[in-house]
Specification:
The protein has 420 residues and is mainly beta. The protein is built from four helices and 35 strands. The longest helix is centred in the first third of the chain and has 24 residues.
């Protein structure tokens, strides 16, 4: 290979490849790079750079802190903080604003009947448990509810749009009606709360339909003509239903005046005879014991006393409709739990309804279309175990010595009550 000639960068003469200086101009042909001493930042520049980095870090942290957040822990309760206030946001049963209902088991008779029940959105202040629904809802853009899973597409779970229901659930911010069938199986309800600041809160409730067997007793298939026969049936229900209190028991009584009272040991649906057949009446006290489970429903029964005793009392939840209480020292006594009464009549009693309970909650705090006539005291509020307001919409008070004796200072509403 031929030698490669180099050119002198000074005079342009040709040079051998290994030459380190030019023989023509006597200059070095090697390039020299100027070596500069290292630069040091001044303290001011260093502090300025650190301050810039700190400002940038704070700006990023502020952005991360203030940007919209999603609160989603897969349960029916979320703790949410905004504008210096901390809230317990939860979904649960009516008149129970402190206990989230993560799992809801709903019994239903086997068949194609559609069942409906409410679920409520509650807002409580974290630090003192006060109801904060109004201040919280002022910060809300919108609330939706929907079933994101339903086991049976032919008989699905579904719900209505959440709306305020001051007349029905005054403690709740919103109420959604849930619909299902006995064969609906399991479903998952999701509440989505979109805040005006962009935050999103999600609550989840698992719903489970529990098909029940119906045990139906009528005068045609069961002896029910005496108070002893009725009590014998009630005492045998555990054996008949094999101890399963989730199954429905319906007892339809004949138009008989029973000489005495009965004790009901479990949740039942007890029906009196219709008006066209004559009323069903008990002349002795009727009581649902503390061992009873489930909810009892009593329809169109008369409780007729002789001036002493208690017409009806219950240690479990009960709903009375179309019943009459006459001639008792106390017509309806709430001592261990709270009973709800619609379209009932309390007449000529010393006390029509006596609230004197330390425990329990309302199925419905409205005593709707009831009649209180000629009682010494129509309604006596001595102890009520909940702060839920009690109302008497379209109820009539007439001829009583005292209409409402509110000894415990319970919140009540008489806006739609009739006084004569």
């Amino acid at each position: 290979m031929a030698d490669v000639l180099k050119i002198c960068p000074r005079c342009g003469a040709r040079l051998p490849e290994e030459a380190s200086f030019c023989p023509h101009c006597a200059q070095s042909v090697k390039e020299h790079k100027e070596v500069l001493p290292p630069r040091r930042l001044s303290r001011r520049a260093l502090y300025s750079a650190l301050a810039s980095l700190l400002i940038l870090a704070l700006a990023v942290a502020g952005w991360l802190y203030t940007r919209p957040k999603v609160y989603d822990n897969g349960t029916a309760e979320v703790i949410y903080t905004n504008s210096g206030a901390t809230y317990r946001v939860l979904a649960g049963w009516i008149n129970d604003r402190f206990n989230p209902a993560h799992q809801v088991n709903q019994p239903a008779d086997v068949g194609d009947m559609l069942y409906t029940f409410p679920q409520c959105l509650y807002i409580n202040r974290m630090e003192n448990s006060t109801n904060a629904k109004e201040e919280f809802m002022d910060q809300v853009k919108q609330v939706t509810a929907a079933f994101i899973e339903t086991e049976n597409e032919e008989l699905p779970w579904y719900c209505d749009e959440p709306v305020p229901r001051e007349d029905y659930a005054p403690d709740a911010a919103l109420v959604s009606s849930i619909h299902f069938y006995a064969g609906s199986g399991q479903g998952t309800l999701r509440w989505t709360i979109e805040m005006k600041n962009g935050d999103v809160i999600r609550l989840y409730q698992t719903m489970q339909a529990q098909p029940m067997e119906l045990y139906l007793f009528t005068p045609e298939n069961t002896p029910l003509n005496t108070v002893e026969e009725v009590q014998a049936l009630l005492d045998s229900l555990d054996v008949i239903t094999e101890g399963n209190h989730m199954n429905t028991v319906e007892i339809h009584l004949p138009p008989v005046t029973y000489d005495g009272g009965i004790t009901i040991p479990r949740g039942v649906n007890l029906y009196g005879a219709g008006e066209e057949e004559g009323r069903t009446a008990f002349t002795g006290p009727v009581r649902i014991t503390g061992q009873a489970t489930g909810v009892s429903w009593l329809y169109d029964l008369d409780f007729v006393g002789g001036g002493e005793g208690v017409g009806f009392s219950s240690s479990s939840r009960v709903f009375l409709q179309g019943c009459r209480f006459t001639g008792w020292r106390t017509g309806l006594l709430m001592q261990d739990n709270i009973a709800s009464a619609w379209n009932c009549t309390f007449e000529d009693n010393e006390t029509g309804i006596h609230f004197n309970a330390d425990t329990g909650s309302f199925m419905d705090s409205r005593y709707m279309e009831d009649v209180f006539r000629n009682n010494t005291t129509a309604v006596l509020l001595e102890r009520v175990p909940t702060e839920t307001a009690i109302s008497f919409p379209e109820s009539l008070f007439s001829g009583n010595g005292a209409d409402i004796d509110n000894r415990c200072g319970q919140e009540i509403s008489i806006a739609d009550t009739i006084f004569e």
